Amino acid sequence: MPSLRIFFVVVLLAAIVLAVPTPAKKRGVQKRSFKVPRQINTAHPTGPNGPAAMRKVFRKYNFEVKADFTVKEGFIGLSKQNQNASSSAATDGNQTQSGSVAANPEQNAALFLSPVDVGGQKVNLDFDSGSSDLWMFSTELSTKTIGQHTAFDASKSATFKKVNGAQWKISYGDGSGAAGIVGTDVVTIGGVKVQNQTVQLANQVSQSFVEDTNTDGLVGLAFSTLNTVNNGVQKTPAKTFFDNVMGDLDLPVFTADLDPDGTGVYEFGKIDTTKFEGDLAWVPVKAETGFWQFSSTKFAIGNQTFDNPQGSDAIADTGTSLLLVDQQVAEAYYSQVQGAQLNAQVGGFVYPCDATLPDMSVAIGDYMAKIPGSVITFATVDDANTTCFGGVQGNQGAGMQIFGDTMFRAQFVAFNGGNQSLGLGQKPLAQ
Ligand SMILES: *[C@@H]1O[C@H](CO)[C@@H](O)[C@H](O)[C@H]1NC(C)=O
Ligand SMILES: *[C@@H]1O[C@H](CO)[C@@H](O)[C@H](O)[C@H]1NC(C)=O
Ligand SMILES: *[C@@H]1O[C@H](CO)[C@@H](O)[C@H](O)[C@H]1NC(C)=O
Ligand SMILES: *[C@@H]1O[C@H](CO)[C@@H](O)[C@H](O)[C@H]1NC(C)=O
Ligand SMILES: *[C@@H]1O[C@H](CO)[C@@H](O)[C@H](O)[C@H]1NC(C)=O
Ligand SMILES: *[C@@H]1O[C@H](CO)[C@@H](O)[C@H](O)[C@H]1NC(C)=O
């Protein structure tokens, strides 16, 4: 079996700094909005890697990777007309499908970074609406572990203050994770400063973070309750950057406006109504979970809508590449794609790159978020570029759906921290 590799030319993007704070007067208090670009990391221009993206989301949410899992019998309302074209992703009977996320050394699942200034040092961090820690590689780590990452050096920051006794730790079910010390510093994003932002410096990271040379750390944008800081005795969750700036913004929101290539703009404090069609649909989230979480009990393939009352809740996650849906939903989708199959070696659904993909819609509360078939392919998996890895994948029965970039490429999303809701609008895409 030849090794599966990816060849992908990444367009090197100029590092355009969009960060322009736009102050505005409101009842005597200066409020504002600001933009932050999300860019391809030009230091490590490798293409997207389907298996790595799959491993990353399974690790992040502690989902069990099942060596074998059973395809559920007779999925509700599912058309069987196309079974022929999808024998290995069959939706009838209960034959066992192998769905392991293949162990493969290439990482590079996170390609997109945004510039952040911490105490005068520039680091490139992933804005992650699926977690709540602002943590980064630091010089507390050995130079060998740091490798090609940029590491924050607290001793070179005049404004860094260590919080004595405080620690943080993110641990995943597979034993991997990151941990370290805690401090506060002046954090500037898009020209807007937070004077006393809690920053978490890694002094331990597991191999998966070392290998993921694209990420120097994260800016967690989920709710502060999930922050992992503790004082050595008990949890003392720190406020996220968004929680700290929210009160100073024109609107208590940040928005994700991503292009089909995954680059784009995060904007804080403002909703740019030129970026989507019609009005935003607002859906309340279950903020008590700490996530931007909502129910999702319907989906559509092309024009056909399916009720899925047992559908797992879903999370809007800018830190995940894929649209990870309940396994039956992924099976239903790929049953409509000629030649699609669940490939055990690659660890997900693949199909011939020349297949026509139907549009997919997933429910976000009562709103149907449509993703045109033209933006669903995530990556190729072979040297000849004949086999493609889908941007829609199954969660192997994990009980949670994770809506990542595959959705954001087609949907403008406003995260409203004021009334804890998501605003969704269809992005105009050339189809
Ligand atoms: C596969 O696609 C990549 C990226 O578009 C390209 O650089 C490469 O030449 C292609 N390989 C073949 C065999 O067409
Ligand atoms: C199923 O596949 C067989 C063999 O490839 C083909 O002859 C037959 O027409 C297909 N049936 C349908 C309903 O597509
Ligand atoms: C499904 O699994 C059950 C229990 O393992 C078994 O009895 C049944 O024959 C299987 N059905 C099919 C269609 O394979
Ligand atoms: C800064 O943050 C730390 C940790 O959250 C807190 O203990 C301290 O009181 C804050 N200082 C100021 C000046 O707000
Ligand atoms: C939340 O705020 C937005 C924007 O101000 C508003 O349009 C929407 O109706 C509100 N949503 C909920 C669920 O309250
Ligand atoms: C889907 O619906 C649209 C609008 O109702 C229609 O124009 C289109 O032909 C339909 N497509 C299919 C495949 O039925």
From TrEMBL:
Q: Record's Pfam families?
A: Asp
- UniProt-listed Gene3D superfamilies: Acid Proteases
**Entry-linked InterPro entries:** Aspartic_peptidase_A1, Aspartic_peptidase_AS, Aspergillopepsin-like_cat_dom, PEPTIDASE_A1, Peptidase_aspartic_dom_sf
UniProt keywords (A-Z) are: Aspartyl protease, Glycoprotein, Hydrolase, Protease, Secreted, Signal, Zymogen
Name of protein: Peptidase A1 domain-containing protein
Q: Name one GO biological process term.
A: proteolysis
Tell me, in a sentence or two, what this protein's role is.
Answer: Secreted aspartic endopeptidase that allows assimilation of proteinaceous substrates. The scissile peptide bond is attacked by a nucleophilic water molecule activated by two aspartic residues in the active site. Shows a broad primary substrate specificity. Favors hydrophobic residues at the P1 and P1' positions.
The chain positions of domain Peptidase A1 read 112-425
Q: List the molecular function annotations (GO) for this entry.
A: aspartic-type endopeptidase activity
GO CC list: extracellular region
Q: Where in the cell is it found?
A: Secreted
* Signal sequence interval, chain numbering: 1-19
Residues that span the membrane, as ranges = none
Its family remark reads: Belongs to the peptidase A1 family.
